[in-house]
Amino acid sequence: MKITNIIVIVSAALLSFNTLALDEKALEKFSQYDNSSDFVIIYDDVEALLKTAVLYMGKSSRQKATKSKAKTGTRLKNKIKPLTDLEGNRFFYEAFDSPEKIQLMTNIRKSLEQLPTNSPLQFFSKDEQLAYWLNLYNISLLEQLILIYPQKNLQPLTEKGELFDQKHLVVANEKISLNDIKQIVIHNFGYDPLLIYGFHQGYIASPDIRREPYTGKRVWKILERNADLFINSNRGTFSDGSTTFKVSKLYEQNKMFFKDFDADLRDHLKKHLTRLYKSKLLAAKEIETETTNWQIADLYGTERKYGGSIANSSAALLDAFVAKKGGDQYDVSFSNSGHMNSNISKFAPVHGRLSNAQLDKIRAMMKVQELRKGTVTINDDEEKIEN
Q1: Co-location of 174 and 274 in the same domain
Q2: Is residue 338 included in any domain, yes or no?
Q3: From CA 12, how far away is CA 74, in angstroms rounded?
Q4: What is the domain range of residue 182?
Q5: What is the pTM of this model?
Q6: Dihedrals φ, ψ of 291, to 5°?
Q7: N or C: which end of the chain has fewer CB within 10 A?
Q8: What is the arrangement of strands in the sheet containing 332-335, beginning at the earlier edge strand?
Q9: What integer pLDDT is reported at residue 65 of this predicted model?
Q10: Is there a single domain that holds both residue 364 and residue 236?
Q11: What pLDDT, in 10s, does the model give residues 205-233?
């Protein structure tokens, strides 16, 4: 048994994961934890955003998409990848069509980014920290993709490292990139393959963006669910009955999670595959890491409407995002066709992610810790520590 790489591509993003990695001092800074802690981070704003803006596609039927036909009056048509085009959750990038709406995402990202400044992660359990890093990663990625939307093909940006290597985040005074977050997670949790499915990549053939935030209590259950959905879809695995079993190129990009790539990857897939596909994997003589679809996982905006009118019922989905008149500059109202009506203001303040009792306790713990070091200034009103 062997694995055959149909296309040998060593992405710049993967290379830079090693060359631009965080140093040991920075990793150590983010490796401390307290598993006896009962502190819980609140993600109400993240949940409101994801439940409104993510279209949940559910379990894959493994149905192939029908190739598009040119409409009357034109010979032009859209190119698609039938194997994977009907798969994976979709994000409503189309709705973020104004500075006010984009600012909403930016403010949520800033709120997450600033949390460790006032509530150091060392006071949280490992699982609470894992949930935090995955939420920050995915929200930050969505923000970056909104800024470049409607760019359709994410392959160039991914392989050149423009999406994942830019150190556009500042967490606890440390400049970090999306790949740095991945490195922190691996440093703290090792090479558990389930972690792969927590890092949405923005394109169709990547692990799903979820309709719920990760939480410390449910983070591993959500990762398990994402693994099941991905592996049991054409994005993750495919067999046409031959002796070759095709899998996502994502596994080649994450080789570090499989010490013996062939054997360990097979074992991992067998844990999640349904009975039919598990038998196909067992019968396969080789695995090919070739399946991918680099198109951004949007709803319909990057699909040019050649000929005819672009007006259709899905346009009503954009009405779920309405900039509020008056009030704060960046207030935005979410209302998903009447199903949900949650107002997310300028951004959820950092203190909104913890209860008042938890904040008081953390401040007290930080005061004791800093007094031991000899220098501390604490301003309770601003919830800020200056060394």
Answers
A1: yes
A2: no
A3: 39
A4: 2-70+81-300
A5: 0.79
A6: -75, 130
A7: C
A8: 321-323, 332-335, 341-344
A9: 86
A10: no
A11: 999 999 999 999 999 999 999 999 999 99
